[in-house]
Write a structure and sequence with these properties.
single chain, about 160 residues, mainly beta, 5-stranded mixed beta barrel, two-stranded antiparallel sheet, 2 helices, 8 strands
Length: about 160
C-alpha cells in the first residue's frame, strides 16, 4: 500500500508548468510538516538549531495543479493525500541521486491566498470529491469560511 497523508505549510510559492505537446498542468512545491515532538524535545531541538519539521516535495497534476497555483502560496496551510514516488538519476558529476516526492491525488486548502488582497482564509471543503480532470477552479465565493486560530497547531 502506498498512501501518504500530510498537513503542512508551503515553504515557497507553487511553480506551475505545462508539459509540451499535451499542455498538461504540473505544479510543484514543498511543505513543512511538524515532526510532532514533545514540548521538551522541541525546545531542545530549537536550542541546538535543529529543525523541528520535515520538508516534503509535492507534485500535483491537471486542473488541480492550476487550482493550487491560483489559491495557495508560501505560508498557507494545506492538506495532501497521495502516493510516495522516488526516481533515480545521475547528476553532472556522475553521482547517483535519488529524488523523493509525494504525487498528490487529493488536495484540501486549509488556508488560501486571496487574489484580490494579501489576506488569507480557510477552505473547509475537500477537492478530493472533484475529479481532477473536470475541476474548473471556480473558487470565487468563500462566504462563511474563516481561518481557524488554534493554539495546538504547532506552526
Amino acid at each position: 500500500m502506498n498512501n501518504v497523508v500530510l498537513i503542512g505549510r508551503l515553504t515557497r510559492d507553487p511553480e506551475l508548468r505545462y508539459l509540451p505537446g499535451t499542455n498538461t498542468a504540473n505544479c510543484t512545491f514543498s511543505i513543512a510538516v511538524d515532526k510532532g515532538l514533545s514540548k521538551e524535545k522541541k525546545a531542545e531541538y530549537e536550542q541546538k538549531g535543529w529543525v523541528t519539521a520535515d520538508f516534503i516535495n509535492i507534485v500535483v497534476w491537471g486542473k488541480m495543479a492550476e487550482a493550487v497555483n491560483n489559491y495557495v502560496g508560501k505560508g498557507n496551510q494545506i492538506a495532501i493525500n497521495g502516493r510516495l514516488s522516488t526516481r533515480n538519476y545521475e547528476d553532472k558529476q556522475g553521482n547517483r541521486r535519488v529524488w523523493t516526492e509525494v504525487v498528490a491525488t487529493n488536495v484540501e486548502f486549509i488556508e488560501w491566498k486571496d487574489r484580490n488582497s494579501n489576506s488569507q482564509g480557510g477552505y473547509g471543503a475537500s477537492m478530493s470529491d472533484m475529479p481532477s480532470n473536470n475541476f474548473d477552479g471556480g473558487f470565487d465565493d468563500f462566504t462563511g469560511f474563516e481561518p481557524k486560530e488554534d493554539p495546538n497547531i504547532p506552526f
